[in-house]
Specification:
The complex is a heterodimer. Chain A is α/β, with parallel strands linked by helices. Chain A contains 13 helices and 16 strands. Chain A folds into 2 domains: about 240 residues, Thiamin diphosphate (ThDP)-binding fold, Pyr/PP domains (Rossmann fold, 3-Layer(aba) Sandwich), CATH 3.40.50; about 130 residues, Rossmann fold (3-Layer(aba) Sandwich), CATH 3.40.50. The model of chain A has no long low-confidence stretch (mean pLDDT about 95). The chains are: A alpha/beta, B alpha+beta. Chains A and B meet through β9 and α9 of A and β3 of B.
Chain lengths: ~375, ~100
């Protein structure tokens, strides 16, 4: 069934179709609509789940960890300061190997107080052991929640499904809402091997000596490696069942491209229009959208970038004292590849929700096309000096 | 992973569960060796209110039945003294451990 819905509500429908059993959440703009709708769904009986109002995001994730450890398919959602407050529990969820799915609406971090989009909130949680999926439209948001559980429950790591504040969260788009029976076929009920059980008592996350701690971390990395395969396999299966396929990266007109633009989230979907425009002018440019940031698609990036003349990365985020974070990661991934390394241009744009319009993206690509190599590691786009 | 009442033997990562969840290592890991002061209940004064049992942070006080004074489990009691502090009739003494 096709419906015109907000990105936030696409998340709610994704959770409904995944038949989540627990939702613990605390409101924060621009995430609130997600859990508001889920509270309605649980209240009117559409969704058979326990909805818990908690006193903070730290408690939201703590409660989600608890219910997931007890064997429930658990869900929560947050944004920015809320994600920062639950940071300790993010480590807990991943370290305890719980297949939680959480939606994070990308909102810039305060101060200055803000509610508009950028990626520094989720990227600050880069190293906690969660998978991260950056979505480009509301359909992908809904599908990624379902896929999130499908992948997480196979690799025992949590998934963060990420959507841009307002540009997706509060923007209505046509979304195909799949039939729940078909989703049931794709996503069977969650049956963990180990769970909290009063008839089979264990202690979870208890004192772990130097003797075995490192092995647990090794296993988390192995799970991330496995996830790369599982994400692609399940993305294909999803495509066969629902007509929409998903992978780690998405290529657009890259085949004969000399210059590759790399972007993520909605900036990437806007960039497609710019690629078309520049192609009409005869420029051989293509786009790579990084959909999954963790696990990082190192091999896929190397494969698509080798032999190109220029690489341009747009970051709606910054690692202070270094560069844009996607730029840094792409550069790092590429270092050990064979052959010539094309000059890589790293642009920072759209922080704190400043619009990244087709014009902005076009100017960025044209700037790179006009130069032999970047004048600095960071090129600020549109900053008023 | 092999488990017995005495010890848990682990070869390496391939032998371990995904989740750091133990198979009851507390059965052999008796934490009472930490204790310096030992709570002793004077059963003649005990009013069987079970406040000590409720407050024990280590669940080291066992409930027998409503007509019997609770029993301190000296294998796990770490001697924090919360029971003695909370007892409304002050029938729990903290006695120095003899080593």
């Amino acid at each position: 069934m096709k419906k015109v819905i907000l990105g936030d509500h696409a998340v709610s429908y994704g959770a409904l179709l995944s038949r989540v059993q627990t939702i613990a959440a605390y409101p924060i703009t621009p995430q609130t609509l997600i859990v508001e709708r889920l509270s309605e769904m649980t209240a009117n009986g559409e969704l058979d789940a326990i909805f818990t109002k908690v006193e903070s995001e730290h408690s939201a994730m703590a409660s989600t960890v608890g219910s997931s450890a007890a064997g429930a398919r658990a869900f929560t959602a947050t944004s920015a300061q809320g994600l920062a407050l639950m940071h300790e529990m993010l480590h807990w969820a991943a370290g305890a190997r719980l297949p939680i799915v959480m939606a994070n609406v990308n909102r810039a971090m305060a101060p200055g107080w803000t509610i508009w989009t950028d990626q520094n909130d989720s990227l600050s949680a880069r190293d906690v052991g969660w998978m991260q999926v950056y979505c480009q439209n509301n359909q992908e948001v809904l599908d990624s929640i379902i896929l999130g559980y499908k992948v997480s429950e196979q690799v025992d790591l949590p998934t963060m499904v990420i959507l841009d504040a307002f540009v997706l969260s509060h923007t209505a788009e046509g979304v195909d809402i799949p039939d729940i029976k078909k989703v049931d076929e794709f996503l069977p009920p969650y049956k963990p091997e180990i769970k909290m059980d009063i008839n089979d008592p264990r202690s979870f996350g208890a004192l772990t000596s130097p003797d075995v701690y490192m092995e647990f971390r090794y296993k988390m990395q192995q799970a991330m490696d496995k996830a790369k395969k599982v994400i692609v396999e399940e993305g294909k299966k999803f495509g066969e069942m629902f007509g929409r396929e998903y992978g780690l990266i998405e290529e657009y007109k890259t085949e004969d491209a000399d210059t590759i633009l790399i972007a993520s989230a909605t900036v990437a979907s806007t960039a497609r229009a710019v690629i078309d425009e520049l192609r009409e002018k005869g420029e051989k440019v293509g786009l790579v959208r990084i959909r999954v940031f963790r696990p990082f698609p190192t091999e896929e990036i190397i494969k698509v970038l080798e032999g190109r003349k220029k690489v341009v990365v747009i970051d709606r985020n910054i690692s202070f004292g270094k560069t844009g974070i996607f730029f840094d990661e792409v550069k790092g991934a590429f270092y050990n590849s064979k052959g010539n390394k094309p000059p890589m241009f790293g642009y920072i744009a759209g922080l704190g929700g400043r619009d990244v319009t087709p014009k902005v993206i076009r100017e960025i690509v044209e700037d790179a096309l006009n130069k032999d190599k970047p004048e600095s590691e960071i090129i600020w786009k549109g900053v008023k000096l | 992973m092999k488990h017995s009442d005495k010890d848990v033997k682990i070869k390496g990562a391939s032998d371990m569960p995904e989740m750091p969840a133990s198979l009851g290592s507390m059965a052999h890991n008796k934490t009472a060796s930490w204790r310096n002061l030992k709570p002793v209940i004077d059963e003649s004064k005990c009013i069987k209110c079970f406040i000590c049992w409720k407050f024990c942070p280590d669940a080291a006080i066992d409930f027998i039945d409503e007509n019997t004074s609770p029993k301190i489990n000296y294998d796990y009691c770490k001697g924090c003294g919360i029971c003695a502090h909370e007892c409304p009739v002050k029938c729990i003494d903290m006695v120095e451990e003899e080593r």
